[in-house]
């Protein structure tokens, strides 16, 4: 009997603990109760935020793997950071396998939700909003996964970010889909990342709709293998309100889809309307740099079949009005700065969309020496393997 009892004890000790549900309600002490649940949660647990408005005075953090934070819907559960004391994120996640879904965040002093080094993370049906509209004092990013492998952003709504509404940086295996980004400087931005799909989103009323960038001097370099498809990119006419010195402070009002210094970018089956500077902009990095790892030129960017209406009629460019008049009052939809890697073509156009080029003589020297002319683009793209692009399919099971 003693041996049987000892064996039972050992088996019970070795068995994994059952997942728990931690239910949090709004009201007095919500900040402390929610942060305590985030600290004490075990892998597999779910933190349920009941319907209501939560008045929070400080940021939150989660560092436990495989936890789900679930609200009662982006209009039902609202985390209100209007009186946040610090300038940090509303929520910082630094653990793997996390699912964030069905709640809203308003007026964080810094970024909305930042996940850093958090692999296989899911953002689903989340709203992050700065309720006073576009202001340079708003937080930089609404949804902000960085340095991660496996990112799924699905069905989110973001507005008011002074940098990018949805930003994925220095990451790989990414899908951003079914989301709305409006009244941000950049609606959606993929930066220094690889194997990303941006699809079925609405990017409207931003300064620039969808940006695919690669920048020097970051820990993770050489972004590429990005598919931008089946998005509605419209009315991106909001004046740029980024703080001075920010890289997106140089994004021109009225930019639809912009690719800068990236490789293997496929842009197809999007609908673009009312982007007054350029529906498509393909450019080299605009500044001088010292990072020897960095290639400042776009390489193998393919503009396929897309639907374009009303673009280039009011370009936010030096001398833009005169250039537009030279083209009959409205610039062609594709703007290329004319700069490319000596060993690789910058741009292919397979969908028959017309364009123009600035014919800049040198990277990092500004618009001096520009010699605008119609674009004579190649039509036969280099092929590349798209089979590994996008978030792991396992993440689909969590939404």
Task: Describe the fold and architecture.
The structure is a single chain. The chain is mostly beta strands and 399 residues long. The protein has one domain (111-398): Pectate Lyase C-like, CATH 2.160.20. Helix content is 8%, strand content 38%. The strands form 2 sheets. The chain has a 20-stranded parallel sheet that branches. It has a 12-stranded mixed sheet with strand order 4-7-9-11-14-17-20-23-26-29-31-32. Residues 6-16 have low confidence and may be disordered.
Number of distinct helices: 3
Helical fraction equals under 10%
Number of strands: 32
Query: What's the rounded overall pLDDT mean?
Result: 94
Low-confidence stretches: 6-16
Oligomeric status of the shown chains? single chain
Largest sheet: 20 strands, parallel
What fraction of residues sit in β-strands?
Answer: 35-45%
Judged by helices, strands and strand pairing, the structural class is: mainly beta
If classified by CATH, what would the architecture be? 3 Solenoid
Rough outline: elongated
CATH topology: Pectate Lyase C-like
CATH class: Mainly Beta
In the residues, how many domains can be counted?
1
**N/C terminus separation:** 48 Å
């Amino acid at each position: 009997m003693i041996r049987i009892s000892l064996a039972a004890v050992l088996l019970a000790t070795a068995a994994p603990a059952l997942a728990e549900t931690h239910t949090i309600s709004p009201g007095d002490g919500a900040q402390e109760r929610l942060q305590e649940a985030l600290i004490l949660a075990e892998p597999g647990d779910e933190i349920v935020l009941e319907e209501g408005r939560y008045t929070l005075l400080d940021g939150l953090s989660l560092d436990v793997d495989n936890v789900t934070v679930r609200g009662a819907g982006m209009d039902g559960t609202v985390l209100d950071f209007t009186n946040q004391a610090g300038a940090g994120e509303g929520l910082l996640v630094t653990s793997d396998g996390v699912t964030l879904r069905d709640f809203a965040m308003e007026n964080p002093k810094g970024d909305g939700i930042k996940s850093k080094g958090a692999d296989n993370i899911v953002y689903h049906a989340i709203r992050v909003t700065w309720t006073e509209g576009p202001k340079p004092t708003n937080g930089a990013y609404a949804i902000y996964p960085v340095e991660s492998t496996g990112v799924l952003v699905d069905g989110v709504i973001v507005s008011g970010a002074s940098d990018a509404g949805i930003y994925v940086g220095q990451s790989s295996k990414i899908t951003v889909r079914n989301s709305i980004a409006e009244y941000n400087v950049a609606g959606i931005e993929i930066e220094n990342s690889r194997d990303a799909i941006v699809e079925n989103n609405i990017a409207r009323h931003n300064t620039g709709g969808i940006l695919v960038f690669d920048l020097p001097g970051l820990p993770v370099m050489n972004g590429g293998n990005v598919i931008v498809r089946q998005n509605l990119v419209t009315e991106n006419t909001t004046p740029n309100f980024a703080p001075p010195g920010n890289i997106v402070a140089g994004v021109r009002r009225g930019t639809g889809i912009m690719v800068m210094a990236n490789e293997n970018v496929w842009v197809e089956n999007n609908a673009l309307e009312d982007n007054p500077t350029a529906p498509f902009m393909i450019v080299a990095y605009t500044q001088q740099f010292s990072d020897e790892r960095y290639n400042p030129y776009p390489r193998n960017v393919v503009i396929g079949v897309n639907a374009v209406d009303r673009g280039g009629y009011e370009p936010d460019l030096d001398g833009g009005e005169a250039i537009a008049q030279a083209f009959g009052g409205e610039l062609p939809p594709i703007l290329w700065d004319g700069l490319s890697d000596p060993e690789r073509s910058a741009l292919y156009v397979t969908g028959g969309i017309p364009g123009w080029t600035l014919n800049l003589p040198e990277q990092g020297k500004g618009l001096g020496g520009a010699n605008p002319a119609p674009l004579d683009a190649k039509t036969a793209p280099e092929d590349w393997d798209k089979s590994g692009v996008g978030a792991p399919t396992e993440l689909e099971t969590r939404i």
